[in-house]
Write a structure and sequence with these properties.
The complex is a heterodimer of chains A (98) and B (115). By secondary structure, chain A is an alpha/beta fold. Chain A has one domain: Hypothetical Protein Ychn, Chain: A (3-Layer(aba) Sandwich), CATH 3.40.1260. In chain A, 32% of the residues lie in helices and 20% in strands. Chain A has 4 helices and 5 strands, in the order βαβαβαβαβ. The two termini of chain A are 23 Å apart. With 115 residues, chain B is an alpha/beta fold. Chain B has a single domain, classed as Hypothetical Protein Ychn, Chain: A, CATH 3.40.1260. In chain B, helix 1 links the parallel strand 1 and strand 2. Classes of the chains: A alpha/beta (98), B alpha/beta (115). Chains A and B meet through helix 1 and strand 5 of A and helix 3 and strand 5 of B.
Chain lengths: 98, 115
């Protein structure tokens, strides 16, 4: 089963994304939640995502909407809470990066 | 049921109670006979090096891993050179591993615990 990687910290909060990308496998999925969704709006994000082996990128829609960055997202798929639950039950292990 | 639990250390040491509590969590899992592995990534590799005060920091605690029968200790190879670290300085035998090995390690776990 593929792993689901969770990133909940904002870009300047640390090396979470870098460490995650160093460990993620091609079939894995990465989900941005909380302040982690800000990462999808950074200038370098498209390039980082494209270079990574991971092809499935998600962001939790409610967190995106709360932060008003919805129009700046590309590469990531915005998902609702029910899809979040589906992702959690269909992946193992769940890996949180901070 | 014995479960495979991987503890990932990704932060530099001296985080106060956080680093110490993570180590406690790890050793408790090992004491309860779970199949524990430890992986140091990024700045987490600094936790493998003891400073001049052997009683300070978590390096001393990680030295106890073999006592708890935790033998699967890994460090991301890419974390070493940019930080001027060599395995010879580590307080516990951590095997430098390539990213491909890291991926397989994570894929094999029931649970992954971040620090």
């Amino acid at each position: 089963m593929a792993a689901l990687h969770l990133i909940a910290s904002s870009p300047d909060a640390g090396a979470a994304l870098q460490n995650c990308l160093g460990a993620a496998a091609p079939g894995d999925a990465i989900l941005l939640i909380g302040n982690g969704v800000y990462r999808a709006a950074t200038a370098s994000f498209g390039r980082i995502a494209k270079r990574s082996v991971v092809t499935r990128w998600y962001a939790l829609a409610v967190d995106v909407a709360q932060r008003g960055i919805g129009s700046e997202l590309n590469t990531v798929v915005a998902i609702d809470d029910a899809t979040f639950v589906d992702l959690v039950t269909s992946h193992q292990p769940i890996v949180s990066w901070s | 049921m014995q479960r495979r639990i991987l503890f990932i250390v990704s932060h530099a040491p001296r985080r106060g109670a956080l680093a110490a509590e993570f180590l406690d969590e790890l050793l408790i899992a090992a004491a309860f006979e779970q199949k524990v592995s430890v992986l140091f990534v990024g700045d987490g590799a600094y936790q493998l090096v003891a400073g001049d005060d052997p009683a300070a920091g978590t390096a001393r605690g990680y030295r106890a891993l073999p006592t708890y029968d935790v033998e699967d200790v890994f460090v991301e190879r890419a974390a070493l050179k940019p930080r001027g670290l060599t395995a010879a300085r580590f307080v516990v035998a951590a095997r430098p591993v390539a990213r491909s090995r890291v991926r397989r390690l994570i894929a094999a776990q029931h649970v992954v615990v971040p620090d």
